């Protein structure tokens, strides 16, 4: 479908016959050239394990923003585009990764002029004396202008009670969300229980964040899949028996440990294995193709020694 504006007061909508036929197939609209930003984001999301709900949510947000842009072009009333979000999930569940994908998608849709991601935490917003917090927070918002301001462990902003300067940071953020509505997108991230408490403590906040993403913990099988995909992307393979050993290792991790690291556990394991394999190859003086590409039990065992 193409929306053409001949004269400001005259609007013509043309539907090409093939497009009409194609659009009857559910989801086929995504293939139309103008939806390239969504396809690109979905391609990046497809590289991630799980996240089914998040993938469908990203499509909804894309559709909402796109349709609003079409309405605006035709001077139809547009619902206020509040794109501030809450990302709720344990460490290593992909919150930062998804925020980066969204930032890029919004930039390509011209929702954000720059599409960069500024990651911040309490210490970047909260000062040590009166007046410093508001200034620090405003400086950070300035840095994030045109992109996404992502505040990790956002609940820590209200941990100190009434007298804590964190409250000043929250107030400054809320004010900036009103004053600079379309200049940046604010994402507050944090662990589930703490975020619920944080939102209860700040009654003005929940309604300002209409979009909520929940990031689930990964099962041992999903962690193994993440490991294998990362290895594949980097051009490494594991022998079948090594795969089995890593799987058992991930299953043996205690629940607490698994949930407090998730994907980051695998990322760290991968980085240690890369170093151990490199060291082994130099010690063995074997630098042939196959050796360069292969992780062995020795690499894994040395990587898991504490
Ligand atoms: N669904 C996923 N599929 C594949 N890899 C993932 C997935 N989620 C996270 N990862 C990987 O796990 C690591 C941590 O991800 P990320 O930094 O996005 O997590 P996070 O939720 O922001 O963590 P934190 O709360 O500690 O900041 C990265 O290496 C990322 O590539
Ligand atoms: Mg993160």
Automatic annotation (TrEMBL):
InterPro entries: AAA+_ATPase, AAA_lid_6, ATPase_AAA_core, CbxX/CfxQ, CbxX/CfxQ_RuBisCO_ESX, P-loop_NTPase. Keywords: ATP-binding, Nucleotide-binding. SMART domains: AAA. Residues 81-219 form the AAA+ ATPase domain. It comes from the Bacteria. Transmembrane segments: none annotated. The keyword ATP-binding applies. Belongs to the CbxX/CfxQ family. This is AAA family ATPase.
